[in-house]
Design goal:
Strand 3, helix 4 and strand 4 form a beta-alpha-beta unit. It contains nine helices and 13 strands. The chain folds into two domains: about 240 residues, Aspartate Aminotransferase, domain 2, CATH 3.40.640; about 100 residues, Aspartate Aminotransferase, domain 1, CATH 3.90.1150. The strands form four sheets. Strands 2-10-9-8-5-3-4 form a seven-stranded mixed beta sheet, sandwiched between helices. It has a two-stranded parallel ribbon with strand order 1-12. The protein has a two-stranded antiparallel sheet with strand order 6-7. It is of the alpha/beta class. The radius of gyration is 21 Å and the shape is globular. It binds pyridoxal-5'-phosphate (PLP). The site of pyridoxal-5'-phosphate has 12 residues, from helix 3.
């Protein structure tokens, strides 16, 4: 690859588009004649305000976010939302339903129990989180303040291929690892959040998209920094926002738009993941643990069944220029993350490498 770069299949932080990195590099010491870096600018300056409002507008455009939804640009990572969601949204009924389909969903579920009656509406733990339960398997409480799920399970390589029907109960969704990779009907959700470091920007920024009427009901103990209403009132600037990451988000959104937007990203991820699943399915050695109807188009998990062979694969792949293919410690095996910035060529070449390794072993 150009600039001596590798195909980095890391689950997050992960690849950013080369064009974006180059642009940021060119502007790093002197942003558009201002004589300073975005990193050195006052977050209250006109110059930064343009960057900030621009990033929000581009995100609104990219995901077709309706007018009654706020976009918040926060810190604390996706994991802070595991607390912020129940603190702000649970008090309406004191109850919430959680779909426990992986590690991050379970972390959110455990955290929510501190603030009210969090209930498991379904779980895929019985089969090692290798599948997504069907709509008919969801045990829904009509009095839940919200229904929580994680759209793409980054660790296990499974993905919801449908939006749950929960009637009047608002949907809350962790889209950390698939946001901007597929079209979303935002109007079906009460709240969407995503840590930026998988598909949007460097680590340090968390995007929250929420229906305005859901804010303003936080528990009295809610720390100021964790109040959606406070952040709405202050346009995400109660304190200093993650300025550099917001600037990078704007550049990434420009890039996504140039590529054809989220529909083009959807086609791209299906093509990349499809190449990898084809190579895995047609091999003798490799299997994909995720059930076929639940496979992720972002994080492709696979294994040989032998820890030694898995380690050999990861080591030889690294030598061939395919980095960070070792699976998460909870699931073992291998994982290839094909986020938006992974070029098609990376997936093609990794698929070839899987075939060669299969023949040779
Ligand atoms: C990475 C990830 C998280 C954790 O994100 P942090 O920003 O590190 O807190 C949560 N949910 C999903 C789906 C993820 O992929």
């Amino acid at each position: 690859m150009e600039d001596g770069r590798v195909f980095n299949f890391a689950a997050g932080p992960s690849m950013l588009p080369l064009e974006v990195l180059r642009r940021a590099g060119a502007e790093i010491t002197n942003y558009r004649g201002s004589g300073m870096s975005v990193m050195e600018m006052s977050h209250r300056s006109k110059l930064f305000d343009d960057i900030f409002q621009g990033a929000k507008e581009k995100l609104r455009r990219a995901l077709n976010v309706p007018g009654e939804y706020e976009i918040l640009l926060l810190q604390g990572g996706a994991s802070t939302q595991f607390s912020m969601v129940p603190l702000n949204l649970m008090s309406r009924t004191g109850k919430a339903d959680y779909a426990v389909t992986g590690n991050f969903a379970n972390n959110a579920f455990q955290e929510a129990k501190k603030y009210g009656q969090a209930r498991e509406a379904c779980s895929s733990a019985d089969r090692g989180h290798t599948y997504i339960p069907a709509q008919s398997e969801l045990d829904l409480d009509p009095e839940a303040g919200y229904f929580y799920y994680c759209a793409n399970n980054t660790i296990y390589g499974t993905e919801w291929h449908y939006v749950p029907e929960t009637g009047p109960v608002p949907l809350v969704c962790d889209m950390s690892s698939d946001i901007l990779s597929t079209p979303v009907d935002v109007s079906r959700y009460g709240l969407i959040f995503a840590g930026a470091q998988k598909n949007m920007a460097p680590a340090g920024l968390t995007v929250v998209i929420l229906r305005r009427d859901l804010a303003g009901h936080e528990l009295p103990i809610t720390p100021l920094m964790l109040s959606y209403q406070r952040m709405i009132d202050k346009d995400s600037m109660y304190n200093t926002p993650p300025c550099w990451c917001i600037y990078m988000l704007g550049l990434v959104l420009d890039w996504v738009e140039e590529q054809g937007g989220v529909t083009a990203m959807e086609a791209s991820r299906r093509e990349k993941a499809g190449l990898l699943y084809d190579a895995i399915d047609s091999s003798r050695l490799f299997t994909a643990p995720a059930r076929a109807d639940s496979r992720s188009y972002m994080n492709v998990t696979f294994r040989t069944g032998s820890d030694e062979l898995d380690a050999k694969f990861v080591a030889e792949a690294a030598q061939a220029g395919f980095l960070n293919l070792k699976g998460h410690r909870l699931s073992g095996g291998m994982r290839a993350s094909v986020y938006n910035a992974m070029p098609l060529e990376g997936a093609q070449r990794l698929a070839d490498f899987i075939r060669r390794f299969d023949k040779a072993n």
